[in-house]
Amino acid sequence: MKTPSQYVGGWLICAAALLMLPACAILQPVQEGQKLIGSPESAVRATFGEPTNIYRLADGSVRWIYSKQPLGYEAYAADFDASGKLTNFRQMLVTSEIYQAKVDSWTKRDVEEHFGKPLEPVQYYPLMQRDVWSYRFRQDGNLSSLFNCYFDKQGILRQVQITLDPLGGDSSRAP
Hints:
Blueprint: H1 4-27, H2 29-35, H3 41-48, E1 53-56, E2 62-67, E3 75-80, E4 86-91, H4 95-98, H5 108-115, E5 123-125, E6 130-139, E7 143-151, E8 157-164
Antiparallel strand pairs: 1-2, 2-3, 3-4, 5-6, 6-7, 7-8
Protein name: Putative transmembrane protein
Keywords: Membrane, Transmembrane
């Protein structure tokens, strides 16, 4: 027969294991999100919480953005098909995704759908007549950088630029 302290010890082990589950979603969000592919929106919401932004895409799918901006370096996209099942989960503020931005083609809406709303203050350069949106990211995985998107008056992406993050930091800095 078990003593009361054995029951309490077993309960504490179970409680500790349950508390560690959300920590996995925080420490390894892409891996945890990939495990949920095929799951309904409710499972993603239960794991990651409320998204920062929600977009209905032209193909009928829905994208949720989980942004760690303005001081973090990540923006995760959870893509759902028309039936509400998760089809993809990935980090969007990586070099390979940033290089997909199409100058003279993308609009502000396209940039938002890909990276989320800018959470850094929007800059305006009157001589260029350009709004500039900036997103922090780690270029090639470790160099703290800013991805800057320059838009004309019509909201068309006219220029992109990668600069060093003026706040500095390196890959060991916790966002």
